Each structure stands twice: as C-alpha cells, then as structure tokens.
Amino acid sequence: MVARPPSSPAWLAGLALLLAGCGDWSLCAGVCPIDGRCSLRDGACVARGQDCLASQACRTFGLCSARDGACRAVQDGDCRGAWICATQGRCRAEGGGCQVSAAGCRASPRCAQAGWCSPLGDQCRAASDADCAASRACREGGRCLARGGQCARGIPPAERGGTP
Fold it and tell me: Mean pLDDT score of the chain, rounded to an integer?
C-alpha cells in the first residue's frame, strides 16, 4: 500500500502557505473574485481599499465597501447598483448589509408583477389592496386583495361598492 499525504483542508492550507510563502497574493485568488478578500494580512485574506468593488458580493449583495477586513454595505450607493436592490428592493445600507426600503420595494419588478410594493419586516410584500391593484397579479390573475403579505383572489371592497 502506498502512503498518501493527509488531505484535510487545514493541512492543505498549511501546505499552500509553506509552498507559496506567507506574502503570496495567489493564496487569496480563489476568494477575491467572490467576496472581495483580495489582500493578504497576517496570513489571512482580507478586504482593503478597493478590493470589494470587483467582487461578486458587490454586484449581487451590495457588499462594496471594505470595513474591518470584510466587504460590507456602508452607504445606500453600495446597494443601489446590486442585484439584490434591483430584484428584491434591498436598497438601503444598514448593519453592513442591504435592507428593504419603501422606494426599493416600489421600484422592484416584484411590485409590478406580484404587488409586493411595501416593506414588511425584512421583505417586500403586499401590505394593502392598493399594492395589489396596480400589479399584474390583479390585472391578469384576479389577485387584488392583500392578505398575509400576498395578493389573494378577490375584488377590493372599495371596488364592490364598499361591501365586505
């Protein structure tokens, strides 16, 4: 039987550090395009300066500013250009991430399609019959009543002459 070297992730990482030298940027090459940790500091990959801007985390989740070695959303502009703002209404920077906002919910395609035009908790949802009334769900599917954050089948009381 031929002896095989250990293959645990920790052992392989240690071997990589040994072979590459602790100051080698190539150690961060795998995580840099994904989460923006492109700079090596004390043997660890961290985000610094402009590292975050070209990352998938910036384009998708708005994590475009380097803070404390990681990419975070620190200003609304970080969020506004990201997929999460355009599709889910998460356009306001808060707590290092992108959170839903009233303007973001109204501008998202989910508002026009499903009536999810208002922030409820941490998601855009249908909060009123008015949210549903302007949506495709109402026009094409008869789902015009806001119920439990969704647009449900029915006609709003105001359009039925005020009767429930």
Answer: 84
70 shares its domain with 135: no
In whole angstroms, how far apart are CA 52 and each of 48, 64, 95, 97, 111? 8, 5, 17, 13, 30
Domain extent for 74: 23-100
157: in domain: yes
The reply to whether the predicted model has a pTM over 0.70 is: yes
The answer to whether the CB of 36 falls within 8 A of the CB of 45 is no
Report the number of distinct structural domains present in the chain: 2
Q: In this structure, are 92 and 28 located in the same domain?
A: yes
The stretch 74-97 carries a mean pLDDT of: 95
pLDDT band at 120 (very low <50, low <70, confident <90, very high): very high
Please report where in the chains the tokens 């240690």 appear, as a residue: 14
Q: Are residues 29 and 65 in the same domain?
A: yes
Phi, psi of 48 (to 5 degrees): -140, 150
Residue 39 has pLDDT above 50, yes or no: yes
